[in-house]
Amino acid sequence: MPTTKSQRHIQGWANALPGLLLAFLMLILIASILFLLANSQTGQLQLPSRTWQTVRISTVQALLSVACSLGIGIALAWALSHRRNFLGRSLLLSLLSASLVLPTLVIVLGLVSVFGRAGWVSQLLAQLGSDLRLNIYGLTGIVLAHSYFNGAFAARQLLLQLETIPAEKRKLAHSLGFTAWQRFRLLEWPAIVHSLPTLACTIFLLCFTSFAIVLVLGGSPRYNTLEVAIFEALKLDFDPPRAVALALLQLTICAVLVLLANLFRSRSSAVASGAIPSWPQPKAQRTSQWLVIVLACLMLLSPLLAIFLDGLGADLSRLLLDPLVQKAIMTSVAFASLSSVAVVLIAIAVVRTQVALSSSLQLGLKRWATFLRASIGFSATLYLAVPSLVLGLGFFMAARQLPGKLEHWAWIALIVANVLMALPFVLALLMPTALKAATRYDRLAYSLNLRGWQRWCHVEWPLLRRSLGQATALSFCLSMGDLGVIALFGNSDLTTLPWLLYQKIGSYRSQDAAGIALILLVLTLSVFNLIPALFNRSSNRA
Amino acid sequence: MLELNQLRYRHPKNSTDNNEEWSFELQALPASVTSIVGRSGCGKSTLLELIAGLLQPSSGSLTWCGQDLLTHAAGERPISLLFQQHNLFDHLSALENVLLGYRGKADQLARKAARQALEEMGLSEHVHARAGQLSGGQQQRVALARTLLRRSEIVLLDEPFSALDDDTRQSAWPLVRALADKHNCCVLMVTHDTRDSAAVADRVLRIFDGEVSALS
User: Do residues B125 and B216 share a domain?
Assistant: First the structure.
């Protein structure tokens, strides 16, 4: 047992060291890439004339997407917090949780099948005698697709906040005879309002740097985001100076946005209040809640159903025997496996460091601990400031200037990009549980002299196991469906499922695209459910 | 008089008291404080929530001065309910919290009445303070002021002093007593501390698995 102050200091820093080293390695890696980007061209970096139009449209679509997503999120969270018992509620909640990891391109394909010119809604309108034909390409489609993903994400987050309202306050509101509006204004709105700025900033960043959705649904260069403009500059026009200039501009804007987002960051930690009481409500209120839930189910399920139906119409056996598809599946699984293992290992190191530094604060190591915790936190949210396509471009430039095959650089770029993409989400899953465990068991562990591997086995692993299962599944699925860096490096030798799907869409091979989309969706949903179940199974055995 | 005649409550099947049925029998007079004691999980809070209308009884009757309360929704009963904590909305001021108890439009008259209620509770200097910034004892006083403004004839207190320190607890006793003596309220107070009962209550009842019996 570490008895003296200096012994405690040494132990604290020993626990913190691996995560600190990793965090600073990440910072150095990103800095090197950015340095390489900035110095990669001997000529003058010049922004194209359409740049400000691109920035403007990126901002407009992101703002509209934030408004729609938060609107959907608030309405759905409100309805679900009141309707707590109905068949399929847990399935709907699982879908909301899975929305973040559903492959973007697959959902886009599903949305086209439902809302496209020849989609289900247009056909229904035609059946009803209407001449109106929907056009999903352009701003409407982009906002619709962004709202699909982020509306579900917002609903899940806000529902968690609504569940933190103490049961006493709900009882008080009922005994005071609050109307639905009074209850929302005085009870529910205060519970969610603090998390809205952070949520809005996160959704804005995700939409501002959106790539796959804008690439497919943009329809014309008019709706390009900076991310798509970088891709087109490099892949279509092969104009690296323009790509680098755009990448640096995007980087600057995103860095400012991340800093702003950090200013708004909510410090409340959502803890569910336990059993939530409920009472009979007026019919109009019940009807509006059901309406919101039914509409949300239609919105969430219809694209998935369309993918299943379209996919089943494809020649799946031929596709599964196609060597190119087999290679794409193998490559995707390999990338996702390597990335998820790397993410989880890095996340564990970072979490242990943060916990050690928190304990160090309690133990009196105040001088550097706060600064280091903030630095590690920043390095973990780097992805939001350095979009994967910018990172990919850095590696692409490195591949041109440094020795080594392009394919090798592609593997490194893909894994690094996927790690950085998944890290903020994985840390958000692991950190609250780890900090809670540390607060509760730190002194007990010290008093029992539980250290290192022993402490991990007896304290951290049993408490973190469930979250680790979810984190592994999340990072695997995010990597599996990503069409960021692969869009720069993808070729006939290096093909992932999303890249193959994009190629099929681009060459108008709709049947094959539907089949590949179904394969990708089934793989993603299976893994997303299977991995946490495996971790839970081992938890039950223990 | 508040009367509970074989007021039965059946617990939900998935609860810890799996589908067990409790039957309450109780009478309490206006202008009196009745203290209810008993071990954890014996039904003290369930009794208060049944009276307040937060739980639905399976059978029996609940009347106040001959008037059937079971036909009224929770918000329409002449009842105020106070918990150990979370009685206020932290983002509202003390005055706004008290005004929530006013039945009708919160006009100038209501605001004046709310201020008076706060003054009576010794909070005239904290009228505009946010509830979240007040101490535990001050928060309970604001909740009691709301009870006064609501003109509730029945006041249900669920462990009202548990979160307070000894000094604050003792200073709150006369306020509860005043609800009965000055405002003629019928006060039912659930507590696990015999000092509260001794200081405030006219009589003490004991609950054991839903069975109410007199202690004093």
Answer: no
Structure tokens at A92: 């709907």
Nearest Cα residue to A242 out of A250, A251, A233 = A233
Same domain, B135 and B47: no
Q: Specify if B169 maps to a domain.
A: no
Is B168 among the domain residues?
no
In chain B, which residue's Cα lies nearest the Cα of A193?
B91
CA dist., res. A174 & res. B83, Å (int) = 13
Answer yes or no: do B61 and B157 share one domain: yes
Do B73 and B87 reside in the same domain of the chain?
A: no
Whether B33 is covered by a domain: the verdict is: yes
Stretch 149-178 of chain B: residues touching chain A, C-beta under 8 Å: none
Q: pLDDT (tens digit, 9 = 90+) per residue, B22-77? A: 888 888 899 999 999 888 778 888 888 899 888 888 899 999 988 899 888 888 88
| Yes or no, beta carbons of A171 and B83 under 8 Å apart | yes
Check B54 against A174: CB less than 8 A apart: yes
Residue B83 with chain A: CB contacts under 8 Å: 168, 171-172
Q: Is the same domain home to B126 and B194?
A: no
Q: Residue B106 is encoded by which pair of tokens?
A: 């919160």
- Which chain A residues have any C-beta within 8 angstroms of a chain B C-beta? 166, 168-169, 171-172, 174-178, 186-187, 190, 277, 279
Tell whether B10 and B57 lie within a shared domain: yes
Confidence of residue A542 (pLDDT cuts 50, 70, 90): very low
Averaged pLDDT of chain B: 85
Q: Tally the domains of chain B.
A: 2
Provide the token pair at A27: 């910072």
Residues in chain B closer than 8 A to A190 (CB atoms): 89-91
Domain ranges within chain A, ordered by starting residue: 50-109+144-313
Residues on chain A touching B75 (C-beta within 8 angstroms): 174-178
Q: Which residue of A has its CA nearest to B82?
A: A172
Q: Which domain holds residue B192?
A: 1-77+152-161+186-216
Question: Is the CB of B75 less than 8 angstroms away from the CB of A175?
Answer: yes
Give the class (CATH, top level) of A50-109+144-313.
Answer: mainly alpha
Q: B157 and B67, same structural domain?
A: yes
**Nearest neighbour of A177 by CB, restricted to B74, B91, B92:** B74
How high is the pLDDT of residue A71?
96
Rounded-to-integer distance, Cα A279 and Cα A275, Å: 13
Task: Name the residue facing B81 among A172, A190, A277 (closest C-beta).
Answer: A172
Whether residue B178 lies inside any domain: the answer is: no
Q: Nearest by CB to A168, from B75, B86, B90: name it.
A: B86
Would you call B73 and A190 a contact, using CB atoms and an 8 Å cutoff? no
Average pLDDT of A463-483?
Answer: 89
Dist CA A154 CA A196 (whole Å): 9
* Cα gap A370→A373, rounded to integer Å: 5
Q: What is the CATH number of the domain that holds B64?
A: 3.40.50.300
pLDDT (0 to 100) of residue A17: 74
Beta-carbon contacts of residue B67 (< 8 Å; ≥ 6 apart) = none
Sequence-distant (6+) residues with CB within 8 A of A492 are none
CA distance A191 to chain B (A): 10
The reply to whether B68 and B48 lie within a common domain is yes
- The amino acid that residue A476 corresponds to is F
Question: Is B79 an 8 Å CB contact of chain A?
Answer: yes
Of B125, B151, B177, the residue that ends a domain is B151
Cβ atoms of residues B158 and B139 within 8 Å: no
